[in-house]
Amino acid sequence: MGIIEKIKEIEAEMARTQKNKATEYHLGQLKAKIAKLRTQLLEPPKGSSGAGEGFEVTKYGHGRVALIGFPSVGKSTLLTLLTGTHSEAASYEFTTLTCIPGIIHYNDTKIQLLDLPGIIEGASEGKGRGRQVIAVSKSSDIVLMVLDASKSEGHRQILTKELEAVGLRLNKRPPQPIAFSPLQTIVANAVTAACLPHFCHCLLYLTTATPTYEPWVLFREDATVDDLIDVIEGNRKYMKCIYVYNKIDVIGIDDVDKLARQPNSVVISCNLKLNLDRLLAKMWEAMGLVRVYTKPQGQQPDFTDPVVLSADRGGCSVEDFCDHIHRSLMKEVKYVLVWGISARHYPQHCGLGHVLQDEDVVQIVKKKEREDGGRGRFKSHSNAPARISDREKKAPLKT
Ligand SMILES: Nc1nc2c(ncn2[C@@H]2O[C@H](COP(=O)(O)OP(=O)(O)OP(=O)(O)O)[C@@H](O)[C@H]2O)c(=O)[nH]1
Ligand SMILES: [K+]
Ligand SMILES: [Mg+2]
């Protein structure tokens, strides 16, 4: 029997089973089995390397964003508008069959935007190009879920479910287990007394799962069985997602208003080029990129070419910043001077552990080198920490 059939069989068994306290454990086990099978399903076929033909796009720029959605919602139209790279758009479904990359230039950074084939219900089981699209989405930093504003709200739920089935968690925080270790059932049972409903549920499932060697998970929150399975499977990807409602030109203003008020959502029209600025700003915010400008000794900072860091990709400490410039630089650094939001006063002397924030200015002081003290805006000990203003970037004060 194939993996898909096995999943179907278990799903049928779950549907047949009544939900109550007595069956809770059994249902939990079935859920865990399905999770395992789905993981297997997504493993690339033996001998192939990763995403598959037409989908192996090299990473480029400071971040990667994937466009996912049902066919003909306007993904390709949007890619062409935002990046200038042409991706064929047409009124028939499945116009796009491979992954098409483009580049967005925004805030002195380059962001790779990926157009993908439309996905359909059943994508998680390999329908259409589901497997490839999901693999590429997982390699991205954030996802833009493109939806047709004139179609049913149900589409968003169906897509979310498809992505959840393959381990993608959108706009969710990973569950926070305190411990995940083999221990005595007794301990677990004692904690079961805690009155959190889901909490008890998880422990109940676990303590009976493997009678000889009882692993247990303890959450510091009211976790569900699904959270528990996520912790045990361990291969989940937590991603930010922006819901992009396209084609608002064909719906009424009241409906537009309703969609626009939903969390993590932006309403746009590619045809009328409406609200694309807002979309870019939201995307930028969700990516959490941190631009750091270097200030060579005795000179003004270079505001044209930031070092771009990200908490999700490698971190934002002074150490990460140095590592970014040159691997061996760290050994030579005595301390750094920092101006910007992360500094408590100007300039702040910081060590390698200091965490930088967007638009900070950093001067590296090497061992055997004296700081230049700075002049003009970048002189020592001016007070209020503040973002370096746009005016200063364009016309820095004279030194
Ligand atoms: N009314 C309206 N139509 C749009 C808008 N944006 C795109 N379209 C149309 O929607 C159709 C599908 O656009 P595509 O860009 O090909 O959609 P897609 O999501 O890339 O489609 P697939 O690649 O087939 O999955 C085209 O006929 C577009 O002209 C919009 O803002 N308003
Ligand atoms: K299309
Ligand atoms: Mg397309």
UniProtKB/TrEMBL annotation:
Domain TGS: 288-366
InterPro entries: Beta-grasp_dom_sf, DRG, G_OBG, GTP-bd, GTP-binding_2, GTP1-OBG_CS, P-loop_NTPase, Small_GTP-bd
Span of domain OBG-type G: 63-288
GO molecular-function terms, A-Z: GTP binding; GTPase activity
Record region (Disordered): 368-399
UniProt cross-references to Gene3D superfamilies, sorted A to Z: 3.10.20.30, P-loop containing nucleotide triphosphate hydrolases (3.40.50.300)
Basic and acidic residues bias (residue ranges): 388-399
Domain of life: Eukaryota
Pfam name, any one: MMR_HSR1
Keyword vocabulary terms for this entry: GTP-binding, Nucleotide-binding
Protein name: OBG-type G domain-containing protein
